[in-house]
Amino acid sequence: MDSSETPMLARARGGPLERWLPLVVAALGLAVLLLAWALFGARGELAELREGVAAQLRDAGEAARDGRTVARESQDGVRDALTRIGALEAKLLESQSQQLALESLYQELSRSRDEWLLAEIEQTLAIAARELQLAGNVPAALNALQTADARLARSDRPQLLPLRRMIARDIERLRNAPGLDVAGMTVRLDQVIAAVDTLPLLVDGRGRDAAPAAAAAAPADPGAWQRLWQGLWQEIRGLVRVERLDASDPALIAPEGRFFLRENLKLRLLHARLALLQRDEPAFRGDIKAAQGWLNRWFDGKQKPVATAAQTLAQLGAAPVNVELPTIADTLGAVRALKLPREKAVK
């Protein structure tokens, strides 16, 4: 009895549960289906998401590869640019060093050009000073100063303007200075000195006059024997000649003394030339006067060379010698003062 009642009791007791159980099972099955469907849909979405992520990853990889390629290209470009920049910097440094070298060379050349210019001006002014001091040659000195001024004008250096003003002052002073042709007077003295050896002496003129007088004393038409005798007599008289001379007669000079006479006259004229160069007017006039005395006493004044030499000495003796000429010492000193700092700078 107990065994038969138990199922029945169980069914009696569980009646509502049995009525809801299929519903529950159906609901659970539906839920499972829905869950499966959801899982299946989620799986598809997950697969799509996975594929999208994979595609994005592939795109990202390709972009990364492209980025790496661009980065490598950029790095190569940067390295190339750095190399070019380094080469440009090297060329710039080389250009700067060349520019510095050129500037230094230009300054050196400019300094050398100024030094050459000042040396040339100094040499020109020294020539002008020597012409004034030794020869009194005002035209030559004036020409030298004008040449120096023209050279300074071509250089166009503002620092040399004071020097140009000094040269212009010296040029004006020389233009107003009295003329003294020392060079011309020296040339004329040299001509007289060179002609001394050929000037005829007074004793030579007497010997030449004796032969025509003896020839005039001969008969107009002698016979043959008489002509022979006269020819022999003339030969004998040519070998021996006796004359009466006073002690002061110029013909008394011995043949060997004629050489010393000419040499002493040349020494007098050379001393007069030296006195002319030294502006020693008393000594110059004394030597010219002594030379004129010797010329008039010992030489034949009737001969044209002697007369020409005497006339030249008279003109030279009357010419002024001691003429005060301006100097250019200040200008020459200014040029040397400009040269001195440059020479110290070079050293």
Give a summary of the structure in a few sentences.
The protein has 347 residues and is mainly alpha-helical. The protein has eleven helices and no strands. α5 (182-195) runs antiparallel to α8 (255-277) and α8 packs antiparallel against α9.
**Helical content class:** over 70%
- Number of beta strands: 0
Note the gap between the termini: 150 Å
The count of helical stretches stands at 11
| Biggest beta-sheet profile | none
Report on the architecture of this protein:
This protein has helices at 2-13, 15-135, 138-155, 161-175, 182-195, 202-216, 224-239, 255-277, 281-298, 304-318, 329-346. The protein contains eleven helices and no strands. Helix 4 (161-175) runs antiparallel to helix 11 (329-346). The chain is 82% helix and 0% strand. Among the domains are: 111-178 and 328-346, no CATH class; 182-214 and 249-318, no CATH class. The chain has 347 residues and is an all-alpha fold.
